[in-house]
């Protein structure tokens, strides 16, 4: 979610971009860990259910620096959208939860959605796989993740393991890239609309 603020940099007045990323997903699916590893390079094994939190970090993209406002929502209530790639959660559940999520409607209406499959390392966990099989379930595959992305009209499906710090940076780089592209698009549309209104 892009926002603009004025800033002064290197003696020149220039527009500094602020971007907003809201993370929603099931309780315990790994949202806080994803944020902690990205912002503090720190992974906690212990599960502490979170309440709504905000943190701010800076990100560099194509030589420019942007402010990333990161919002972590409480999973118990139910964008980057996260789900655990090995949980009982099926892609259809994701679809329903995403579309029904008040956070999505409140924060992300009309904006870029990235679906994230978390804890991919657990796909290799044999004990967990047995547990899932015994209840007739399977870990979610990459293909299922991609299908869900199409269903929910997300722009992108990415997978990560916060525990092993795999693909974490990529998620926020993609979020930055796509938020910037969305800003550009909406500015163009506004300019077009403004021109029409004057006529
Ligand atoms: N194996 C593995 N465990 C993870 C990973 N990411 C998070 N966990 C564990 O999963 C548990 C829940 O992670 P959180 O990041 O707190 O989950 P959350 O989505 O923020 O949960 P809520 O605060 O309830 O919304 C913790 O015990 C983490 O250590 C991962 O990539 N791999």
From TrEMBL:
Q: Which Gene3D superfamilies match?
A: P-loop containing nucleotide triphosphate hydrolases
Coiled-coil region list: none
Q: Which GO terms describe its molecular function?
A: GTP binding; GTPase activity
Indicate whether Nucleotide-binding appears among the record's keywords: yes
UniProt superkingdom: Eukaryota
Q: Which SMART domains match?
A: RAB (SM00175), RAS (SM00173), RHO (SM00174)
Do you know which Pfam families this protein is assigned to?
A: Ras
Give UniProt keywords alphabetically.
GTP-binding, Nucleotide-binding
Gene Ontology terms describing biological process = small GTPase-mediated signal transduction
InterPro entries registered for this protein in UniProt: P-loop_NTPase (IPR027417), Small_GTP-bd (IPR005225), Small_GTPase (IPR001806), Small_GTPase_Rho (IPR003578)
Name used for this protein in its record: Ras homolog family member F, filopodia associated
Species this chain originates from: Hucho hucho
């Amino acid at each position: 979610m892009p926002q603009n603020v004025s800033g002064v940099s290197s003696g020149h007045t220039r527009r500094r971009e602020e971007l907003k990323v809201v993370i929603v997903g099931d309780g315990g699916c790994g949202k806080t860990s994803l944020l902690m590893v990205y912002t503090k390079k720190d992974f906690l094994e212990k599960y502490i259910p979170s309440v709504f939190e905000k943190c701010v970090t800076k990100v560099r993209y194509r030589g420019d620096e942007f402010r990333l406002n990161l919002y972590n929502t409480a999973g118990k209530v139910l964008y980057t959208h996260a789900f655990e790639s090995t949980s009982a959660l099926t892609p259809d559940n994701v679809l329903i939860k995403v579309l029904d999520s008040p956070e999505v409607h409140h924060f992300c209406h009309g904006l870029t959605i990235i679906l994230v499959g978390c804890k991919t390392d657990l796909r290799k966990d044999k004990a967990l796989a047995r547990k899932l099989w015994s209840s007739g379930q399977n870990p979610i595959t990459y293909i299922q993740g991609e299908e869900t992305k199409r269903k929910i009209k997300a722009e992108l499906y990415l997978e990560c393991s916060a525990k092993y710090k795999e693909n974490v940076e990529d998620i926020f780089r993609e979020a930055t890239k796509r938020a910037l592209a969305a800003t550009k698009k909406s500015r163009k549309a506004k300019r077009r609309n403004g021109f029409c209104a004057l006529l």
